Amino acid sequence: MENFSDIVVGLDISNNAKEVLNRAFLVAKRNDSKVTIAHAIDTGFFGNFIKDTKIEKLKLSAIKGIEKELEGVNTQGLTYTINVEKAKPSVFVMDVAKKKDACMIIIGANEKKDFTTTILGSTAHNIAQKSNLPLLIVKCNSSEAYKNIVAFTDLSEVSKKSLFFAQEFFHQESIKCVYAYKKMSEIAFRYHDDYENRDEIEQEIQKHEQEKFDKFVKENKIEKAGLIEDRVGVTNALTKYIAKNSNDLVVLGSNGVNNTGAFLYGSTASSLMQSLKCDVLVYIPKK
Length: 287
What we know:
Elements (H helix, E strand, L loop, with lengths): L5 E5 L6 H15 L2 E8 L10 H19 L9 E7 L2 H12 L3 E5 L1 E2 L6 E2 L2 H9 L4 E4 L10 E5 L3 H13 L6 E7 L3 H7 L5 H22 L5 E6 L3 H12 L3 E5 L13 H9 L3 E5 L4
Parallel strand pairs: 1-2, 1-4, 2-3, 4-7, 8-9, 8-11, 9-10, 11-12
Antiparallel strand pairs: 5-6, 7-12
Helix pairs in contact: 3-4, 8-9
């Protein structure tokens, strides 16, 4: 049984701050978690030249801004604190999470005016690369609990744990587990000059991948599962799957986005973090 007693929200005071807070308190209610809101005043190179009195004014202003955002958020029955310091955002958020022994970090995607234009900034990538905690990236409006979660797998131990973590944390036993593989490309058939055996080769590949996935599903007693294929690549297959099925949360298992042992060799996880329009949970095993 996981300990879900503390969640840390890395908050950038922006147009999307309320949506991030809404999502944070929605997921906190599932497990009666305490919420720590961490906001860093990043003064960059010039920080050493700014007087302490000015920093204190900036901190007070930030706290007031966060409290203003919280006025429209349902925090009833939950304990929360606001922690504001002068620091580098990603480092500060990870430090707070470590001190709190948090079970998860929640952050928002960068934005211009609203969630129609979201990108992942350096803070999200730094936390995904360097933290040892699951990271929930909020990209969408958050008025209700997740209803259509999918967990992508590469059949690794980490991706298996990511599915079980999501089931327990979100109290959903029926999260679908999806595995994707790349079919042989036209160029590959042309290179091997083997067009006449194309159908047979593709059937053998499909059979091999299906058997691997079936074994994974059976061993881990997964109730809902799906296998998909794509000639372009795994990232393309998974992206199209989300567009077709309108999932509101994607779960990715990872040892760190830049780690070569990460989910689908890391690059797929990083690409999906950036490109998907729905919320993303990057499951990084807690250490």
